[in-house]
Amino acid sequence: MSSEITHDAAHDEHDHxxxxxxxxxxxxxxxxxxxxxLYLWLSFIMLLYGGSMAMIIRLELFQPGLQWVEPHxxxxxxxxxxxxxxxxxxxxxxxxxANWLVPMMIGAPDMALPRLNNWSFWLLPFAFGILASTTFMxxxxxxxxxxxxxxxxxxxxxxxxxxxxxxxxxxGISSVMGSINIIATILNMRAPGMTLMKMPLFVWTWLITxxxxxxxxxxxxxxxxxxxxxxxxxxxxFDAAGGGDPVMFQHIFWFFGHPEVYIMILPAFGIISxxxxxxxxxxxxxYSSMVYATASIAxxxxxxxxxxxxxxxxxxxxxxxxxxATILISIPTGVKVFNWVTTMWKGSMxxxxxxxxxxxxxxxxxxxxxxxxxxxxxxxxxxxxxxxxVVAHFHYVLVTGALYSIIAAFYYWxxxxxxxxxxxxxxxxxxxxxxxxVNVLFFPQHFLGLAGMPRRIPDYSLQFAEFNMISSIxxxxxxxxxxxxxxxxxxxxxxxxxxxxxxxxxxxxxxxEQLPSPPPYHSFTEAPPVx
Amino acid sequence: MIFxxxxxxxxxxxxxxxxMLQTSATNAAYELNMTEGVTxxxxxxxxxxxxxxxICVVIGILVFGAMAWSILYxxxxxxxxxxxxxxxTTVEIIWTIVPLLILIxxxxxxxxxxxxxxxxxxxxxxxxxxxxxxxxxxYTYVDEDIxxxxxxxxxxxxxxxxxxxxxxxxxxxxxxxVLPVNKKVRFLFxxxxxxxxxxxxxxxxxxxxIPGFINDSxxxxxxxxxxxxxxxxxxxxxxxFVRIGVEAVTEPEYKEWLASKxxxxxxxxxxxxxxxxxxxxxxxxxxxYKANCLACHGVTGAGIPGAFPAMTGSAIVTDPDPSAHIDxxxxxxxxxxxxxxxxxxxxxDIASVLTYERNALGNSVGTVIQPSTIKNxx
Amino acid sequence: xxxxxxxxxxxxxRFVLSPNxxxxxxxxxxxxxxxxxxxxxxxxFFTIQGMWLVLPFSGLEMLALGAxxxxxxxxxxxxxxxxxxQRRIRIEKGVQQVSQSWEFETPWIRLIDxxxxxxxxxxxxxxxxxxxxxxxxAFLDNSxxxxxxxxxxxxxxxx
Lengths: 531, 378, 159
What we know:
The structure holds three protein chains of three kinds. Helix content of chain A is 66%, strand content 0%. Chain A is mainly alpha-helical. In chain A, helix 8 (266-280) crosses helix 14 and helix 12 runs antiparallel to helix 14 (388-418). Chain A starts with a strand and ends in an 18-residue tail after the last helix. By secondary structure, chain B is an alpha+beta fold. In chain B, helix 2 packs antiparallel against helix 3 (89-117). In chain C, helix 1 (25-48) runs antiparallel to helix 2 (54-76). Chain C contains three helices and eight strands, in the order ββααββββββα. Chain C is 40% helix and 35% strand. The chains are: A mainly alpha, B alpha+beta, C alpha+beta. Chains in contact: A-B, A-C. Chains A and C meet through strand 1, helix 5, helix 6 and helix 7 of A and helix 1, helix 2, strand 6, strand 7 and strand 8 of C. Strand 1 of chain A pairs parallel with strand 8 (132-136) of chain C.
């Protein structure tokens, strides 16, 4: 009988069956859960890849002298480590989490543009394949730092730079498509009753993050394209000899780069705002102020870029403005931390693994925030700029900030995704091992920077030997801890104690209250009731 | 309890005890903080740094204290019942306003310090132009007609593989910048190639040297001594070895040094007039090559394929007619990393390094290039 | 919002079906214009600084964003209107204006309500007669379809 039915031209494209079998399932999938899984695995592989480069860096810096690698190779390692971790590990992990969680949190059956979603993921393995291949080229990989300042990245760059430019373009396209998809999903596909101010904070922070991405990605694309034309087509955007302006490159880069920094931390705020209330068994304090704080951080992020450039010789008025604007960011960021602490206050707390990672996030991210405030004070930045103090600062916000939130999110939602509880003992070991190691790794770098050690150097004079050795030991331990994490991840996926639908006693949100664990391949075939 | 491990004093202890386990102990100075330095500005920066640091410590104690308190006392295992408050506009306003006031408290002294820091133009006694070059510095005393290039000392280059026991490893330079104490020195920064940054912590001077731009900064050194620093903006392969040495001396010593420097320049000029033997040129050429060319073109002249061309068997180097070779060294090659050396090396140096490149590194062209040829080529 | 409007005017009934949509067309357009203004302002800012290659990328991206929002909107601003009286039943489908329509005679009408898909138990509703059927409310979820089927049957009996 069904063959007689006139087919609706605009009929929903998804197949209404379970996943296909075999490898092609992953290549052709348009399911938000599958694509989220792909993103998360890519990000884990990139974490280990970027991490292994960090191990080479820490090995060379283990003691003074040039024992292991040549300076040129060392510079390739710092460059690739930065690029891979920023664009390969942190960003795809957040996009993966968004894919998994946003539709479930707003009560949508899938993302708004499922096929675009597939494409935006599958660009990434190619982008990173191209980027990684440069290491094996005759000239070696790009060696000008992840900030690729001209003219080091134009006139003075190795041949492989063109591949780097192409790879960055691909990553940019992927991010833009991912963001468009997230924006369309959140705007159009919320379940009836899910008003904007009822959305979980993770959805809010991702909506704002997606807008930031849309706003700054053309700037990055323009910057690398101008590098390309400077290298090959005779333009001189950044070449002083041809009338160009190398400082302008830095303005462009950081106009992209500073919002990029918040792109890597705003979703983390959303994750922490989900985990803390669950384990404090108390609603999030100041939900609306959290939303406004996120929005103000996003707006401010466009106005502070030149605080990365206090030593390029800006006019005094410019330096004053950027100093004031920069230290102002600590207010909305502070509001967030105060809100989290107040959420815990008079709660009924338990300390399962996700909570431990979230607490670790708050403490160490705040330490990173303090050093950020210090760096924002323009005159003193004369002494901090481009030293290990800066290295310590951004690793505190990116490793113990962004990465910690991602790991917290994994432990928090993996029982929901797989239906299996992870092993609590192993999770706790993972946390304490990582946390001790990461502080041994990065805390001494504050001292190194203050004592005068610049960043991106393959070798140092003897007065820095002790702290570098301590830092390297911490580095190796932290690296090993993440291999241990890989074991936990695989073990959890393959089996484990059955998780309840609610998973956590204090969990709230549609994904915990309205869906079983694991959720069906197509969630919400009926609109869920929104309280 | 356990969370105390996070806080900085706890970590310092942890880090310190770990450090004691290892035995190298050549320079067992655990430098923890920023130098107070030897200029009025560096001391101002130090106190501003400490002010912000202590503000952060106090806020940290309050926030982490509240957190630790609720972790200890508001835990389910102690039977804590969750309250249900989740909003308070008053509280939100308070913790927006109070930080704002603290920030204003930081911004006021910071503004004053920044204005002092940027005040390079007024009343300078001496002006030194600092030119960043991959991978060395060139200093030009603007009023004195003195100019020289400063490299990392050869003693450090000899022990890259194992610097143990070499106390001055990566600290010494071959020719330090000599400056008198208690004079306002204005620095002008410029670059010949990529962006560098000249940083001497004790002088609290860190300024980028950028091609096509001239930046300035200043310092009044109050104590004689040797102050060391290094390039702090990634400038390519040997970024880690672009060292800075500043020798601060008394006024009479400075005058003496100026005179000796001028005499040496005159002697070098007359040396360029002479005919040099091939042996002398080769010997000197090797030294010049090591200091100026080796970084890119390699110990054996093999270069780095794809990034820096090889010297061995190069068409330009092995061409019996040396004019192209002279041209590329004297004037550099536009659009590549090859710099112009006419401002960095004197005639004798260029002649000897050319002779060396043509007769060593696997090449044997045989030609000897005299300093007079270079003088004409300029 | 899934809406099944039943308009009862002198023995004729009208059902308006539309998929869930959480933002109005008006708001969406405003938001798009706002995004364009921000993105293009950044592009123009850099063009003024001489770095004109940012602007083409901003433009391309805004085109892509516009296209994607338009495509998703077409999906969610669809409408299906079913009008029925004693003699005729009329089904109209389209976005903003009617792009397809069918008419059947009410006395011969049949409502097909079937379950397809072993796992997902997707319901399918179709109206028609004489071997000619039109699927209705494909974008509705199962419980809404059930309600729609019930009400349609009810009306057909009444007229």
